[in-house]
Amino acid sequence: MKNIQFIIAILCLSMATAYSQSGKINISAGLGFEPTTMMDNATVNTMPVTFKLGYSISPMFSLNAFGGYSATTSAPTVINDGLAVQSSNEQTFLGLRGELKKGLGERFEVYGGGALGYLRQNISEKTTTGRDFFRVNGEPTQNDPNARNGRVFYTGFVGTTFFPIKHVGLYAELGYGVSLLNGGVTFRF
Q1: Cβ pair 182, 50 in contact under 8 A
Q2: Distance (Å, rounded) from C-alpha 46 to C-alpha 60?
Q3: What is the mean pLDDT of each run of 10 residues along the chain (189 residues)?
Q4: What's the CATH class of domain 23-188?
Q5: pLDDT for the residue numbered 40
Q6: N- or C-end of the chain: fewer Cβ atoms within 10 A?
Q7: How far apart are CA 26 and CA 3, in angstroms?
């Protein structure tokens, strides 16, 4: 318990120090335009959302914590016994990312980098009438029923930010995550 309190105290002090240095904290929120499950002809239940909290270590490098969520449902698939089944997939992402950035004038910034995170998927199968569908071991399935729900992932990304107002920007980003293409608003403190 003392270790947890110590870690929380260090995090609070770190955030207080970071917050006191103007222009070094970035907070971003966005929506995904192309969910990673769209290639499976999935229907979007919840638009992919992303959140980032970043700290600029230098004018050209920042470290960000990020998270995201999306929910989709696949098109019905007829399996061997003639029953149509739909898969629902809820994805949650959490991780850290390093970002190299370059200012292009006073209002534009381009960036790119790499991320390491954890993906948790909750996949369930239902019949087209809405009942849960359970497979007997050994039956064919489009999803591995024994697959792990979570896994570590790494990815790369590129993006740009436009600041119409000094501390408020609009960003667009291409890279693997909750969505292949994201856009949103960012605040710099």
Answers
A1: yes
A2: 34
A3: 52 46 80 72 84 93 94 78 77 93 91 94 77 64 66 92 94 86 93
A4: mainly beta
A5: 64
A6: N
A7: 28
Long-range contact pairs involving 100-104 (C-beta distance under 8 Å, separation at least 24): 100/60, 100/61, 101/60, 101/61, 101/62, 102/60, 103/59
Question: Which contiguous run of DSSP H or E holds residue 13?
Answer: helix 2-20
**Under a CB-based contact definition with an 8 Å cutoff, are residues 87 and 57 in contact?**
no
Q: Domain residue spans in the chain? A: 23-188
Is-contact 60 47, C-beta < 8 A?
no
Other CB atoms within a 10 A radius of the CB of residue 44 amount to 15
Tokens representing 121? 């998927």
